Amino acid sequence: MTKVRSDMAAQSIGRYIVTDPSICHGKPTFRGTRILVSDVLEQIADGVDWEIVIQEWHGSIGKEATAEALQLATSAP
Asked: CA 42 to CA 45: how far, in whole Å?
């Protein structure tokens, strides 16, 4: 079992996106879920309609959260 460092804490990346070393190895996820932002961005890059993406995740993420993920990804250096 991997030990999580106690000096690392969850961080908000935006309104809907967080990183938490105790969830999905600290990769960005949508707040309150274990849905990786990278998985959703990959679906969008593959041309999947946003409404279908939201349906496939059973409404756990919304259009605003998806838009934030895309905006953050396009503004990343």
From this structure: 5
